[in-house]
C-alpha cells in the first residue's frame, strides 16, 4: 500500500431524523432472516486517499458533504456508541463502480475550484450500520451478504466496532505489457484444451478454422510483411473468440438444423433459423409494403437497432434485449447494466444521438415465497426480484427515461436464472444536415473516438473468471455496475454533437467492447487502425488485449471527420465528457491493432466476420402426451375468482410499477395504472412524441411461456397475438399494404431458451428443446407474414440453465414479442377500464374450450392439453372490426383477455373506480360456465360502449361480439350463467385481494 | 406586453428540461434550455432572462443526497471571471425576477438556501430527505394551495392534481423557529391533500411524510417557488391517469392540464409587470 494519508469523513443521522435505511434493515432482517437486531443506525463514510490538510478535510466535510439538518459529522474519529454492540461496514470491491465516490470528488473540485481529474479515484464511499444487539458473526454475515450487499461486488467487515476501519478498495496490479503468441499448430485435443484454458468457448471446428487461417500461405506472407509472428498473438485469439462468440455471431440461430417430426415421420433441413424464419418473413412483409408504396421500414437486422419512419421529419428506433446471466449473479448490477446497456443501442444506431423516449422491462422470476433449498451460488428468488427491480428503477429513473410498459412472469423454472428483458425506444430526426440519420457512412481516414467511461477489467471473460485468480486487490470483472449518470451526460452530449454535425457515425461499446464495436464499424470502409495506448484506463496494469475486449460500461465509439475533431472535443469539455482519439479507419482489409507503435493484432476482416464455420444441430419433435383434467363437480366461482385475482401471475404489479418513473418527459398518455384511484391495469402503453402535436406510439409486450409446456408453436403464436391485441385494444391500426397509411409497426423478438444442443449425457433432451425452438420460429414466421408485421430487431439467449452440483434448473423456452405501432392521435386512445354506469359491456371475439396451461388449471394443479390456438383469420377479422370501432369512436373501454380469461378481465375493468360494478349475464350454454369465465382463448376483448351506440356497434361486430351486461354504480360484480348467479363480489374487496398479491 | 424570457437549466443529470421548456413555451414565454456549464463559462447570462427554471431529475445521481452536488456547484464553483453563481442568483432576485424549482430543482433551491430564506441570508433552513416509505414512488397526488401565500405562481388556484416522482421528498425544518416562521409567513404554499382537498398526513395522499404535509415552499417575497410534485408533467389533460373517464363524463372538458396554470400565472404576471 502506498503511504498516503487516509482521511475518513463520517456522516451520522441525527437522532431526531427518521433513519429509513436503518429501519429497513431491522425489518428485513426480522422478516426474511428471522434475526432480531434490536435497532439499526445507518451512517455513511467517505474515505479520502490523498495528502490533504486538516482544514481542507474539515471544510469539505462541513460545506460539501454534510446536510446540517440531517447529519452529525465525524472526521477521522468515527462515531461509537456503547448502545450498539455490533456493526457492519460495506465497501465496494476494487474496480467496482463507485458513483458516490466520484460525485464526492466532483464536489471537492467545485469547492476548491480545481479541475476534475478523470484518471484517478481517490474518494471511496462506504456504508456503515450500527446494530444494537450483540449478533453472532454468522448473523452479521447473513445480514451483510443477503440484505445489504453481494460478496461478488462488496467487501464486508463486521463484529464489534472498535472505532477504526482500514479497508480501501484501491486497485493494484503488477503487470508487464506483453503480447504472447499462442501455439495453434497442435493436434485436436490440444486445440480443445487451449479453448478451455483460455476461456475462449470455441468448439473444435472453430479452433480448426483458426488453425487453417494461420496455415494459409497468403496469410503467412501478409503477416511476415506486416511484421507479425507466424503464430496468432494472444490479442488475435481473444478478438476472434469475442467476435465468434454465440453472443455476437448467433451461431445456433444460424446453424444447419435437421428437424424430425417423430409423430409424422417427416424430416426437413433448416439452414439458419434466422434466415429461414425471421429474416425471410420480414423481407416478404417489406416487399409487400413497398410494392404498395409503404416505405416506412428503413433498417432491419443491421446496426444496433431497427429503424422505422414515423413521418417526414422523424424516425423511430427500438431495441429489446436480455441480461440474464449477470442478473443471476448480481441482480441489481445485472439489471441496471441491462437497461443502461440497451439505451446505448438506439443511441448508437446510424449517425446516433437519438432522443431516448421510453424503456420497457419484462421480467421472469421464480416465486418470491419459494421455501426450498438453494444451490451454492443461487440467490433466493425474492432477492433476485428485489435487486432486479431496483436496477430497473435506478437505470430508468436516473437517466430520465420513463419505464412505460412491462410484465412480470413467475414460474418455478426461472429460479435458477431469471430472465431480464430490457427495451428502449428512441426518436431521431430523419436527417442530419440533409443526410439520412439512420445510415452509417465511414470513409478511410475518419478518426475513431472513444467517449464516456474509462476502461477497466470489467466484463473480461465474464462469469468464467476463476476465483483463484482473484485476490483482495484484483478488480472484479465478472459483475458490473452501470453508472446511469455517466451515461446521461454522454447521451446529452451526443444529442448536441450529432445535431451540430460533429459526429459522422456512432456505435455502442457493449459485449466485446472496442474489439466488437470497431471490428464491426471497420467492415464499412474495410479496415481500421487502433492505438490501444491512447485508450484511457481506470487504473494501470491492463494488457492490451484486455483493453480491447473490456466491456466497461457507458462508452460509445464515434466516427469523426478529421476537421471536426477540434470542435467535437471542445463541446465534450463543456459537457464534461471524456473523449479519446484512438485510431482511424482504412481500406486495407485488415483490423490493425497497435500498442505504443507495435502491431499487436492484424486480422483479415473477411475472416474475422465470415470465417466462423456453420454449426450442425439435431431437432426432434414429438407432441407431449397430455390429457384434459377431470374437474371437481362443484366449482365455487367466487372463491376461484378471488384466488385468481390474488395469484402471482395475475395480481397487481403496483408495488413494482410505482417505483419506476413512468411519466418523466411528460409524454405518457396511457400508463401502466389508470383510473380515479390509479389502480386499473392497462394493456398497451401510449405516448405522445412531442408537445406540438398529439401523434404518438402504442407499446406492448406479449409473453406466455407456460403455453410452451403443451406446444411451443402455440406459445409463440399466442405471445405474438397478445402483443398485437394489446395494441389493437388501445386503438392501434394493423398494417395494411393495400392502403398507403404509413402506420409503422416495429417488433423485437427475443428468444430465451435452455441449452438446445443435444448431448447424450449432459443434455439428453436437447433435440426436443431444439424442436421447440424451431416451432417457436415457425409461429413467428406465420404470424408475421399473415399480419404484415415485420421484425425490426431482436436477440437470442441460448443457454439459460443454472447448473450446480449436478442439478440443472432450465428456463422454459420463452419468447417475448415487443411491439410498437404508430398512433396518429393519442387523444383517441381507449383505456381498459369501464368509465360510467349505464355503459354496455360486450365480449368481442370467440371463446373455445381452451384451458390448457391456463391460470385456472394452474390453480387446480393441472396442465391440461387444450392450449389456446391462434386462429389467424378470425383474429384479423376481429381486429379490423376493432379498428373500425375505434375509427367511429364507438369504444369507451377495451381490455384484452389474457391470464385468467373473461372473469379476470371484467374484474380488472372495474378497477378504474371502486364505486363501479357490473351486471353480467351469459346466456349461451354451449360452453360450461368455467370455460366462459376462465378460458384463455386468444384475440378477445372486453369492451364497453355508450348505450346510444348499441345498434351501430352490434351491426359492425355481428357474431364477433356477445352482449354481456351493463356497468353499474353499485360497486358490485355479479355474473349469471344461463340465469344462475355464479359470482357476486364487491369491487373494493376484489381490488384489495388483487393489490396485495405481490409484496416484497 | 413584452415577451417573457425563460431560462431552463440542464445538465449533469437534470432530466425534466424538455417538459419544463414546453411548459414555459405553452404559457407564452420564450424558453431557452441551457447547460449549466454554459452559464458557468459565461456564454449565457442569467440576467438576460426574467424567469429561471430548475427542473427535476437526478443531478449527479443524487449522490451525497438529492441535489446536494448541484447546489454545491452553484454555491462554490467560480464562473470564468471568478464570480459565484449563487451571488448572481441573489442579484437576479434583487432585480425583482423569478425562480421556480421542481423536484430535484426544488431540492437544489432548498439546499442552497433560496427557500424558504426566512433569514434573507441564503442559508439552508429546511431539507428534503428520504420518504418515510424508503422508496422512490411515482403517483398522482392532490395539492391544496395556501390562499394566503405570497407567491404569484399560485394565483387563482385552490386544489390541483399533479404527479410526485421522488425518493427524497420528505420536508424537514431545521428547528421549531423555522417551522413557526414558515407558518406565520404562509411560506408553506402547497400541502398534500386527501381526495376532499383537506391537508393530510395520511399515506399515500401525503406520499413522503413531510412536516406540515408541505409539498412546496415560497420565499417571503414570493419570487422563489419550489415544489416536489411535477406541474410540468401535467400540461395536457391526457397526462392525468383519469383523463379517459373525465372525458367520457364531460366530452367538452378542456384539453389543457392543470399544471400549466402555474406557468401561465408567472408568465402573465411578469408580462403585466413590464406593462406597468
TrEMBL record, chain B:
Record keywords, A-Z: ATP-binding, Cytoplasm, Glutamine amidotransferase, Hydrolase, Ligase, Nucleotide-binding, Purine biosynthesis
SMART domains to which the protein is assigned, alphabetical: GATase_5 (SM01211)
Keyword check for rRNA processing: no
Residues spanning the signal sequence: none
Molecular-function GO terms, alphabetical: ATP binding; hydrolase activity; phosphoribosylformylglycinamidine synthase activity
Assigned GO CC terms: cytoplasm
Top-level taxon in the UniProt lineage: Bacteria
GO annotation terms (biological process): 'de novo' IMP biosynthetic process
InterPro entries: Class_I_gatase-like (IPR029062), PRibForGlyAmidine_synth_PurQ (IPR010075)
Keyword field contains ATP-binding: yes
Name of the protein in question: Phosphoribosylformylglycinamidine synthase subunit PurQ
Organism: Caldithrix abyssi
Taxonomic lineage from the root: Bacteria, Pseudomonadati, Calditrichota, Calditrichia, Calditrichales
